[in-house]
Amino acid sequence: MKPDGTLGWSAISAYLDTLASADPTPGGGAAAAVTAAQGAALFSMVCNLTIGKKKFADVEHEIRLILDQCETARRQMLNLGDRDMEVFGTIMEVYKMPKTTPEEAEARRAAIQYALRASSEVPFELFRRCIAMLPIADRLEQIANPSVLSDVFVGRYLLVAGLLSAKANVEVNLDSIDDDAFCEAKRTAMREALDGLEENCRRLVGR
């Protein structure tokens, strides 16, 4: 970052400039991954501001384990953002396939369907990883340094934003996929994972 510590000069600003440009990548999928990764990063910060303090010596081992989980999740989420851009590029390429003959049209259709299925797997995996991180927020709220409790809350909100954004990206892909069983399996898994989340979100907003 710039010596004055502002975000306006940082890599974050460059990323946002690219996100705002006419280039379709990075797009919503990458933004969802970055949002979720920020949530995981805030949890890591909370852990780092808890470790080493006598007051929290009894939970330090658990906090260190949580920190490892958060760091792994952050790397995985950013990797999913990269993968999202890759699969988007693949989809754009298959849509350019020739379709002048019935054989070409069928090959193009099959390639598009394959690419859409692959594309739906990336945000679905991000959705799963966000869901898996939410219990960590609950645990940090209970045992971590209370002076950074607001950062736990913000991290949780970012994960919720990431998972709902990921769900939207999955749904967009499913709407164009012909395999009903595949689509229903994805929708059922997301619906079951979200059971109770709406109530929890209302509770959080009402703090």
Automatic annotation (TrEMBL):
Keyword rRNA-binding appears in the UniProt entry: no
Sequence ranges assigned to domain Cyclodeaminase/cyclohydrolase in this UniProt record: 12-191
Pfam families (alphabetical): FTCD_C
MF terms in GO: hydrolase activity
Keywords from the UniProt entry: Hydrolase
Keyword ATP-binding: no
Protein name as catalogued: Cyclodeaminase/cyclohydrolase family protein
Lineage, top ranks: Bacteria, Pseudomonadati, Chlorobiota, Chlorobiia, Chlorobiales
